Amino acid sequence: MNGWPFFDQGDHEISPPLSSLVLYTSRIDEMAAFYTHHFGYAVHIEEGDRIVELRPPGPGVTLLLRQMGKGRKQGQTLVKLVFAIQHVAAFCDMARAKGLEFGPLHTADGYVFANAKDPAGNSVSVSGRLA
Asked: Which of 6, 10, 1 lies closest to 92, judged by CA?
């Protein structure tokens, strides 16, 4: 039931790696300090960006800290799995053909992303941010 591989219009195989986790929080500064102090992550902030990027000290998954939305409560499971892909729209079209429906494409700070849910209701995103 795997359904892989996906191919783009140029017949290039697309297998996006898990590139980052979005952690929603109302304590961005404390979270950044925690991961830099205890795990060696480095803070990276682009001017005007709403996301605080925490880069690992070596190979690994980037953590993206995002202000928690209204209606969310601290302590809930607030995670989004993000898969890096350059051609977000093409991937979403191919995923739709395989039965996974992504929401609309969003443009933010020079990259495109789209969101879906896994069977357990967890947020999943495909994004050009780190592709």
From this structure: 6
Q: What is the C-alpha separation between 91 and 57, in angstroms, rounded?
A: 30
Taking only the tens place, the pLDDT of each residue in 34-82 is 888 877 889 999 888 889 999 988 888 998 988 887 777 665 656 787 8
Given a contact cutoff of 8 angstroms between Cβ atoms, the answer to whether 14 and 87 are in contact is yes
Report long-range pairs for 68-73 (Cβ below 8 Å, ≥24 apart): 68/24, 68/25, 68/26, 69/24, 72/24
pTM of the model: 0.62
Exposed / middle / buried, residue 2 (Cβ in 10 Å: 0-12, 13-18, 19+) = exposed
Whose tokens are 């053909």? That residue is 97
Q: Which residues of 49-71 are buried (b: 16+ CB within 10 A; e: fewer)?
A: eebbbbbeeeeebbbbbeebeee
